[in-house]
Amino acid sequence: MTQLTIGIDIGGTNLRAAVVDPAGHVLDIEQLPTPSTVDSLETAIAHAVGTLRQRHTVGAVGLAVAGFITADQERVRFAPHLPWRDRDVRDRLSRRLGLPVVLEHDANAAAWGEQILGPGRDAGTWVLFAVGTGIGGALVHDGSLYRGAYGTAPEFGHLTVVPGGRACPCGKRGCLERYCSGSALETTALEYIATGRHPDSMLAGIFHSRPEEITGRSVVRLARDGDPLAKEVIDDFALWLGRGLSAVQEILDPELIVLGGGVSADADLYLPGARAEMEASVVGAGFRPLARVEAASLGSEAGMIGVALLAGQTQLSPSSTGS
């Protein structure tokens, strides 16, 4: 990687594009709400790239997508929070942008950033557990991303944890990410308010006067201020996160689990409870080594940085450049 690249993290809520140098430093950022249609999404990507190219000379673009990517990294098969369905995203956008494009799962992209610049550097087998609007996951073994036979592994967020539970945008019910994510904080808060818990809490007061302000961020902010209802919502989040981490431990037995995504910035609020639930839930509790759990070092920028580094390092074939 010898020149600047653009890394774009396309989540269910926001589209963020960053100019990244070869050392992984973010030089400039553009952010937009994530559009809900294919045409508007691809137009937003082109707009963000065009705006950044007015200020910087870049050689390639990386797209980190919250969805299933084909093993050849050319198409988005399905994305629960995005409009693409079996879409040849890489070549379409490469032609539109006039630049080489690398397509990657958002959690894989974030994991690559942490592998190059974060705690993954010192781990042989480790997992990224990314918590944002939903949940993403990545597995790194001996310095390589594990993608599975068809390019979709691992998918932690859509493990069914409550049969017949909350509806998920993926089409299923009771997925882990409906109980443990930024959007789940809002859902849990609304459910608790509806049952009359802590009616005098500030969170309940906000709901009755300005219900549109009940968001994951407002729950976190009020929990830090000591609001009893918000703290209970965080405790519920920690419980489900701990159960999710115990499943990761059971299935993959990693030495390290890195918590990424936008919610990772507030890990101090929920990580102790999640760790305790993980230790209590795992089989053989007390008689086996468990993964250490750390917050991602790159925070919410990990996906942009990781996919930008991949865009700079990948030797693209002629077909992948849109030629």
UniProtKB/TrEMBL annotation:
It is an enzyme of class 2 (transferase). Pfam families: ROK (PF00480). Its EC number is 2.7.1.2. Keywords: Kinase, Transferase. InterPro entries: ATPase_NBD (IPR043129), ROK (IPR000600), ROK_cs (IPR049874). GO terms for molecular function: glucokinase activity. Belongs to the ROK (NagC/XylR) family. This is Glucose kinase. It comes from Corynebacterium glyciniphilum AJ 3170.
